[in-house]
């Protein structure tokens, strides 16, 4: 039906043109932002899950930093214990030498022995570590090494002039005690290293899951943009044709 008052074809063309413009605008927005979801209206459920994944990744990233800090602390302790082990070796040498008459000045050896004991106590302050670490995926408790001061190792207070043999036995026992503490540190470092690897794997996989939800498929959206441009051009051309339909009424009136 020809009508001057209501051009139905033009209204339909306008409606489709508006739809095509929204489609094109959305496609351009996704291409320029890189995101498939920019607001909750794009995909409410997907946005909620993507935000959860992003939050988990943030927690895991901090967890990796926490683990690395704990590893560093244990490595410092391991270095201190390694140094203490070398000092115990020297103390064993001094005690053995002092236990043999005529091998040197017992006073000098005793002075060095006790100086080394004092240095062990000083360096033992760095031999800490352990505790509960938040990994981002939970908490991990790492055993703290035992005390390795000269007193804890029972190598303090000896007089090599009269107690050299006893000092030899004490140093031998101290080496075993120190070895147990070093084993605890080494096990802690290994456990934390595995925890760090797991957290990094979780970061990669969770980030991938978030990307699937949040990020735009550039190839698909580029194709959609070409489609939207063609559809918009077609809609404009069709609307021009529809707008010209009332002119046919004038032709009829002229011929009347």
Identify the strand order in the major beta sheet: 1-2
CATH top level label of the largest domain? Mainly Alpha
Task: Please report the distance between the alpha carbons of the first and last residues.
Answer: 18 Å
- Count of alpha/pi helices: 6
Helix content: over 70%
How would a textbook summarize the main sheet?
2 strands, antiparallel
Order of helices and strands: HHHEEHHH
Rg over CA atoms: 40 Å
The figure for the number of domains is 2
CATH architecture call of the largest domain? Up-down Bundle
Commentary on this structure:
This protein is mainly alpha-helical and about 260 residues long. Helix content is about 75%, strand content about 5%. The protein has two domains: about 170 residues, Up-down Bundle (f41 fragment of flagellin, N-terminal domain), CATH 1.20.1330.10; about 40 residues. It contains six helices and two strands; from the N terminus they run H-H-H-E-E-H-H-H. The longest helix has about 55 residues.
Task: Write a short abstract of this structure.
The protein is mainly α and 256 residues long. It has helices at residues 8-33, 44-98, 106-124, 160-214, 218-244, 247-254, and strands at 131-134, 139-142. β1 (131-134) and β2 form a beta hairpin.
């Amino acid at each position: 039906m020809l009508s001057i008052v209501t051009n139905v074809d033009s209204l339909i063309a306008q409606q489709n043109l508006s739809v095509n413009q929204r489609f094109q605008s959305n496609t351009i927005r996704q291409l320029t932002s890189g995101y498939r979801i920019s607001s909750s209206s794009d995909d409410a459920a997907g946005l909620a899950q993507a935000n959860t994944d992003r939050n988990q990744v943030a927690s895991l990233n901090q967890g990796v930093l926490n683990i690395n800090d704990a590893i560093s602390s244990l490595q410092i302790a391991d270095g201190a214990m390694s140094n203490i082990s070398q000092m115990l070796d020297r103390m064993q040498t001094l005690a053995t030498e002092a236990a043999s008459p005529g091998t040197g000045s017992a006073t000098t050896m005793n002075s060095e022995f006790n100086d080394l004991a004092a240095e062990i106590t000083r360096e033992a302050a760095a031999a800490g570590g352990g505790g509960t670490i938040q990994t981002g995926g939970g908490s991990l408790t790492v055993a703290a090494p035992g005390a390795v001061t000269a007193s804890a190792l029972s190598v303090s207070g000896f007089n090599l002039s009269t107690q050299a043999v006893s000092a030899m036995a004490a140093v031998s026992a101290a080496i075993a005690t120190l070895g147990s503490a070093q084993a605890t540190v080494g096990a802690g470092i290994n456990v934390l290293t595995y925890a760090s690897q797991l957290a990094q794997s979780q970061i990669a996989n969770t980030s991938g899951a978030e990307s699937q939800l949040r990020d735009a498929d550039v190839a698909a959206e580029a194709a959609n943009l070409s489609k939207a441009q063609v559809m918009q051009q077609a809609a404009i051309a069709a609307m021009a044709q529809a707008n010209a339909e009332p002119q046919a009424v004038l032709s009829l009136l002229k011929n009347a």
